[in-house]
Amino acid sequence: QVQLVESGGGLVQAGGSLRLSCAASGFIFSITFMGWYRQAPGKQRELVATITSAGYTSYADSVKGRFTISRDNAKSTMYLQMNSLKREDTAVYYCNRDPETARRLGYWGQGTQVTVSS
Q: Over the stretch 47-76, which tens digit does the pLDDT of each residue have?
C-alpha cells in the first residue's frame, strides 16, 4: 500500500536552513506528480511546492526564492531544501501526490515538524 515517510525537520533559528526528505512507496513514484504541503497550528494545510514527473517545479509565493523542491526517481524520494527560514515557516510538513488525489485517497504520512525560532 501507499507509504509516505517524511523526515528532516527540526528546530532552527530564523535565517537557517533545513532539508526535508520524503520516501515514497506503493505507487510508481517516477511518473507521479508530487508536492510538499504544510500545516501551521490553527491553520489549514497548504500546498507550498510541486514537482512534475519531468522535474518542472512551482512554488507558493510565500516560499518562492527560498525553497527548492527536487526528486530522485531512482530512490523514490523527494526533497525540500528550505533556506532563509522565517518564523512563519513553522509547521508540520507533509509530502503527497497532487491535491485532488491526496483528497480523494485521504492518506497522509506522519509529517515532519519544522520549528523556526527568532
A: 999 999 999 999 999 999 999 999 999 999
Task: Give the tens place of pLDDT for each residue, 85-108.
Answer: 999 999 999 999 999 999 999 999
Unique residue bearing C-alpha cell 527548492: 68
What distance in Å separates the CA atoms of residue 4 and residue 22, rounded to the nearest whole number? 6
User: Cβ distance 24 to 33 under 8 Å?
Assistant: no
* Contact between residue 116 and residue 85 where contact means Cβ atoms under 8 Å apart: yes
Please list, in sequence order, all residues whose beta carbon lies within 8 angstroms of the beta carbon of residue 74, skipping any fewer than 6 positions away: none
pLDDT for res 103? 93
Contact 76, 97 (CB under 8 A): no
Which residues is 80 bridged to in the sheet?
20, 69
- What is the Cα–Cα distance from 105 to 97, expressed in whole angstroms? 10
C-alpha cell at 47: 500546498
